[in-house]
Design goal:
Blueprint (H helix, E strand, L loop, with lengths): L2 H12 L5 H12 L2 H6 L2 H4 L7 H6 L4 H16 L2 E4 L7 H4 L7 E6 L8 E5 L6 H14 L5 E4 L5 H12 L3 E4 L13 H10 L1 E4 L11 H12 L2 E4 L7 H11 L3 E4 L7 H11 L4 E2 L3 H7 L7 H4 L13 H13 L1 E3 H8 L3 H13 L3 E4 L3 E4 L3
Parallel strand pairs: 3-4, 3-7, 4-5, 5-6, 7-8, 8-9
Antiparallel strand pairs: 1-2, 2-6, 10-12, 11-12
Helix pairs in contact: 1-6, 8-9, 9-10, 11-12
């Protein structure tokens, strides 16, 4: 089967009414591929958990194939990549999340799997102080060559994106609309510039207007793509705190910039810190230490792969060690996804390797190879 044909069925699967990302994954898991889902008879589909009669019958609707082909043609016309969750270029940090989108629309040049990825979010009603802090954060981060993710919104988001452009830092604008409909429209010129060094990303198909229900969905992508989320300014309620909540649920690091007591734009950040849902941000050093970007001997360790005798490990241990060698350091969720080892077994395996001195655990449920 050609790549285009499989992509056609993958897209078609997302067009089935009320199917949802979780059920798409479940269907593919049971049937083997997106194409096989459409070729599986209704009686067999009904034996799959959570697949009802209506959904099974909807999967027989061939019109979704035609609509999927139109999307492929439009993507080709606009230079948009269609990233299915099984694709190698799909953000690996999202792959392990149960609620991540199965299909993403991407237009840009940045590597979505950059070694260091940071989300910067905040209120739309940003203050001058918030703007200065955001610009300083981006400037300080630039020396580490990260990918910076935000939501292309007014306030802190757009300041973060523009600061990235100023410092030549790749940045991703995650959208709550179709990739062909920039919202807010006033950020259209900035979005064009972003595509030159970063990119635009959305789960919404072409022509989708921004809608209130899409913004929380957008926020989960921002949180899921990043190793750490930094909230600069935020009210008690709003998108920035929703993003922080998602990041906490995904076991990612969250930092909040403390603000003035009694100021509405500081209440959200102060609340996150008070409730231990975010670490206090005082300087870029906080991020560097939390993510172990300054580990001594990090570069030196890369050259010692040949010193470890893989023959002493079990097959699964060798698999984990090889992944850690390749990626330098990895979150346990990414290890579980790429190794396909159950979380319980992987945790035990990593603990055993740590006792033997081959693996070192890091802050934020990350691991790296340790050399004696």
């Amino acid at each position: 089967m050609s790549t285009t044909q499989e992509k056609l069925y993958q897209i078609a699967l997302t067009l089935i009414p009320k199917i949802g990302d979780v059920l798409v994954r479940q269907l593919i898991s049971y049937c083997g591929s997106a194409e096989q889902v459409f070729k599986t008879p209704v009686p067999k589909l009904l034996k799959i958990p959570n697949i009802g009669k209506t959904l099974a019958q909807n999967l027989q609707d061939k019109s979704v194939i035609e609509n999927a082909w139109k999307i492929i043609q439009e993507a080709d016309k606009q230079g948009v990549e269609l990233l299915f969750y099984t694709d190698k270029t799909y953000p690996t940090r999202l792959k392990t999340l149960y609620d991540s989108p199965v299909l993403l629309y991407y237009k840009g040049k940045a590597n979505l799997n950059n070694t260091k990825t940071v989300a910067i979010v905040g209120t739309r009603q940003s203050t001058e102080y918030g703007k200065i802090v955001t610009e300083q954060i981006v400037s300080d981060l630039s020396t580490f060559n990260p990918l910076i993710v935000s939501g292309l919104a007014y306030g802190i988001d757009i300041v973060a994106h523009k600061s990235c452009l100023k410092n030549n830092v790749p940045t991703i604008g995650v959208m709550a609309s179709g990739i062909d409909l920039i919202y807010p429209y006033q950020h259209k010129n900035t979005s064009i510039q972003i595509q030159e060094i970063g990119g635009l990303l959305t789960e919404q198909t072409f022509g989708t207007q921004p809608d209130q229900r899409f913004f929380p969905q957008r926020n989960r992508i921002i949180a899921g793509m990043a190793d750490v989320t930094i909230v600069v300014e935020a009210a008690v309620k709003g998108g920035a705190l929703i993003t922080a909540e998602y990041a906490n649920n995904y076991h990612r690091d969250v930092f909040a910039v403390p603000g003035q007591i009694g100021k509405s734009f500081s209440e959200g950040c102060n609340k996150l810190i008070k409730e231990n849902k975010a670490q206090i941000f005082t300087s870029i050093k906080d991020i560097v230490e939390a993510l172990n970007w300054d580990l001594a001997g990090h570069e030196k360790g890369k050259n010692k792969e040949s010193e470890i005798d893989f023959s002493n490990f079990t097959e699964e241990e060798s698999q984990v060690m090889a992944l850690l060698h390749k990626n330098q350091e990895m979150h346990i969720d990414d290890l579980a996804w790429q190794s396909q080892i159950s979380m319980a077994k992987l945790s035990s395996l990593l603990l055993n390797l740590e006792f033997q001195g081959f693996v070192k655990s890091l802050v934020g449920k990350k691991y790296k190879v340790s050399y004696q």
